[in-house]
Amino acid sequence: MTKYRIETAVGIFVLAGLACVAYLTIHLGKVELFGGNTYTINARFNDVTGLVAGAEVQMAGVTIGHVDSIHLRPEDKTALVSMQIQKDVPLDEDAIASIKTSGLIGDKYIKISPGGSDVPLAPGALLTDTESSVDLTDLIGKYIFGGVK
Tens digits of per-residue pLDDT, 51-68? Predict the structure, then answer.
């Protein structure tokens, strides 16, 4: 009888341990099993130098999402950036997406400036107002080699 209780307790302990490992794997891996709480917004940029998948998307200095993927559009030679935005943050159709640098030579992120329209963007919509990043190496090169007048 005592042996049966010990084996049952060990079995429950092992199941609880496996449940904890599964929970940590899902949350630390940021795996969304049931649709998640984000929606996708796309933006087209002329230049996304330094921007990588996983970069933050911020509004008013608060992280509201991340860059999901970056693809080259062969038809017009621009970059299409797909972003995952939190569902509780609606974006207006005239919002502006800008690529910014955190610090002087830091990582790139996307800053969303809210628009004045009351029409929200639908999931999967395209942000049309975008600003590409400033390439510091080109700017420094112009100063060094006299390209700035």
Answer: 999 999 999 999 999 999
Residue 35: the pLDDT is: 65
The residues pairing with 38 across neighbouring beta strands, listed in sequence order, are 86
Radius of gyration over every alpha carbon of the chain, rounded to an integer in angstroms: 23
Measured CA to CA, the distance from residue 136 to residue 133 in angstroms comes to: 9
What gap in Å lies between CA 76 and CA 134, rounded to an integer? 21
Residue 82 to residues 40, 59, 113, 143, Cα–Cα distance (Å)? 7, 16, 17, 34
The predicted model scores a pTM of: 0.71
DSSP, collapsed to helix, strand or coil, labels residue 23 as helix
Q: Are 62 and 14 in contact (CB under 8 A)?
A: no
